[in-house]
Write a sequence for this structure.
């Protein structure tokens, strides 16, 4: 049976209050509420709800977001919000070992270093630009 949206709002309000008591900024709370509301809407569309959150629900939502070609940042924001919500619920098991796409490792490689000649050339260019005309 699908739950009415209004039945879960107090839970989101309680979560928001918990965040405020943890000294989270107003913007953080606003963002978490928005993301949690989107998650809640998706859960309702799938016949589930926040009150009975399970690990499989979280995994399916993350998989859904990825299948919708959401950015890595969006997926990670959703996962971070759900993780914080799980902490609030004292149900950390629902976010354990959730599979998510990882950032492409080749983009994280350190750039090649400059040679001594290249460093000297750049230094000379900087000095030349700093000299008064």
């Amino acid at each position: 049976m699908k739950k009415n949206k209004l039945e879960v709002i107090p839970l989101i309000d309680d979560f928001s209050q918990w965040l405020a008591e943890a000294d989270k900024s107003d913007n953080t709370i606003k963002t978490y509420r928005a993301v949690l509301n989107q998650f809640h809407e998706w859960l309702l569309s799938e016949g589930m709800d926040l009150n009975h959150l399970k690990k499989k629900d979280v995994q399916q939502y993350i998989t859904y977001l990825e299948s919708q070609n959401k950015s890595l940042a969006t997926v990670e924001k959703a996962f971070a919000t759900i993780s914080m919500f799980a902490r609030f619920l004292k149900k950390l098991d629902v976010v354990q070992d959730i599979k998510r796409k990882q950032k492409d490792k080749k983009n994280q490689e350190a750039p090649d270093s400059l040679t001594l000649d290249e460093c000297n050339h750049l230094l000379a260019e900087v000095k030349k630009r700093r000299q008064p005309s």
Summary: The helical segments are 5-21, 26-45, 55-67, 72-89, 116-130. DSSP finds five helices and no strands in the chain.
